[in-house]
Amino acid sequence: MRLTLNIWRQKSANEPGKMVKYDVPGVSEHMSFLEMLDVLNQRLIKQGDDPVVFEHDCREGICGCCGFMIDGVPHGPQRGTTVCQLHMRYFKDGDELYLEPFRAEAFPVVKDLLIDRSAFDRIIAAGGYVSVNTGSPQDANSLPIMKQCADMSMDAASCIGCGACVAACPNASAMLFVSAKISHLGLLPQGQPERDRRALRMLAQLQEEAFGACTNYGECEAACPKGIKLENIARMNRDYLKAALSYREEASAGGAA
Amino acid sequence: MSSVAVPSGFGRTAALFNSVVGKKIVMAVTGVILFGFVTVHMIGNLQIFLGPDRINAYGKFLQENVELLWPARIILLTSVALHILAAWQLTMLNNFKARPVAYVKKAALVSTYAARTMVWSGPIVGFFIVYHILHFTTMHAYPGVAPDDVYNKVIYGFQRQPAAAIFYMVANILLATHLYHGVWSLFQTLGVNHPRYTPWIKTGSKLFGFVIGMGNCSIPLAVLLKVLPRTL
Predict the structure, then answer these.
(1) Which of A38, A103, A114, B53 is most buried, by the most CB atoms less than 10 A from its CB?
(2) Domain shared by A46 and A160, yes or no
(3) Considering CB atoms only, which of B19, B104, B185 is closest to A216?
(4) Could you give the percent of chain A with pLDDT greater than 90?
């Protein structure tokens, strides 16, 4: 099949970008979307042009590296699919597509379709972890966990941090991402000691990073390639409210009085 | 790296309002109060269809209980002020700044028309509330000399100025869409979301928006269609 691609080309973070039109003939329906771009890039390199820069790593839909907008939808039209797992059989001959980077103040464009998502790393560093003592591991069955909690935690943990939620949100809000991390840890016993602090710190960092606020559009849930649910945002709001009202600083004489 | 210093007392309340989720919680709580008000206000006003005596007695009852009227007014005005302040700050300081470069092409997958127009329905309804108070409460915007009783005040007010009646209907349709998204949203913001009952909450908020919009529109419409006759 033959496609027409309008791709956002931007040389660097400080230069203005623009949409450039490319004619891409000979696309096989068995190619993934990224393989189709590889073919285009090979041709651009042979012609002595700059290839289109996009981020990718595992190409198995589990690393969270890839992702850009295809016709205004993060990761393209196929629900629950990362762009590396999106196959060309979902497109037809003669389609004209618009490829743009995920756009948010917190995700500056590095080049073309490549964005800097280190804002997510800083949010994780602020509280998206559990502190574990080193030493020999304890017996795996010593901490009973309800099946339902383990399931919901695993569902939240399937977030790959690709940023599609931010890209889809009209407010460029990262609430779905943060709530997935908070739910993933907060539903397990290991996550309880730092639960209050986690909600306060991660949300404080989210605000530092200039993401927007949630207005419950639901676009993030629809665009998420891993099916993270809005329910997680409600859980995060509960955690935040409880933490904001009941959190205590550690006292130097704590426990002695 | 980030750290949280959580202050105590008043500082803690201020910190809650400084956070985006805290502001959303303020909007949700004031939203509950305002939703309760529009429901009671509509039920009270629909008494106009039961005849002049009922609505005039209701108006008299409200005016005579000053010790209830003013506390209610103060709570409502404070709620409106906080709701607008939080919405203004979230929209202007966070949301409008979060995506400085717009998409060339952006699709809406599931968001409703009501959700996408909250930033417009809110200010228009806000403007309507100011006009409504000047129109029928303080009477500064009332056309001509007002009759003494509530029933005829409403009828003359709309008949002398059909444009006002039409603005009332437009504003109330927008109020209905605002409630449709706002009512289910406040549950989500306060952390109430469960696969078992969230579909019911969404259906319920659609229904509430519809009932309140239709209920409030029915009064100016009935006046314009002369279903409600003048008695003076």
Answers:
(1) A103
(2) no
(3) B185
(4) 90
Q: Tell me the CA distances in angstroms from B81 to A29, A48, B24, B32, B78, one per residue in order.
A: 57, 61, 14, 14, 5
pLDDT digits (tens, 9 = 90+) for A94-148: 999 999 999 999 999 999 999 999 999 999 999 999 998 888 888 878 889 999 9
Interface of B with A in 23-42 (CB under 8 A): 23-25
**Is A256 a member of any domain?**
no
Q: What are the structural domains of chain B?
A: 11-224 (1.20.1300)
A218 lies in some domain: yes
Rounded to a whole number, what is the distance in Å from the CA of B147 to chain A's nearest CA?
Answer: 44
Instruction: Please check whether residue A188 is in contact with residue A153, taking contact to mean a CB–CB distance below 8 angstroms.
Output: yes
Q: Are residues A124 and A225 in the same domain?
A: yes
pLDDT tens per residue across span A194-216: 999 999 999 999 999 999 999 99
**Residue B49 token pair:** 């269809």
Nearest to B159 by CA among B60, B227, B57, B59: B227
CB contact under 8 A, A234 and B95: no
Contact status of B193 with chain A (Cβ, < 8 Å): yes
Question: A73 and A149 share a domain?
Answer: no
In the chain, the amino acid numbered B142 is Y
Say if residue A122 is in the same domain as residue A239.
yes
Cα–Cα distances (Å) from B93 to A210, A215, B86, B125, in that order, read 9, 14, 10, 22
Q: Is residue A255 part of a domain?
A: no
CB contact under 8 A, A203 and B20: yes
Give the CA angle between residues A119, A123, A124 to the nearest 5°. 115
Q: Which residue of B has its CA nearest to A175?
A: B21
Residue A101 lies in domain: 3-111
Count of structural domains, chain A: 2
ipTM of the complex: 0.91
Minimum CA–CA partner of B113 in chain A? A217
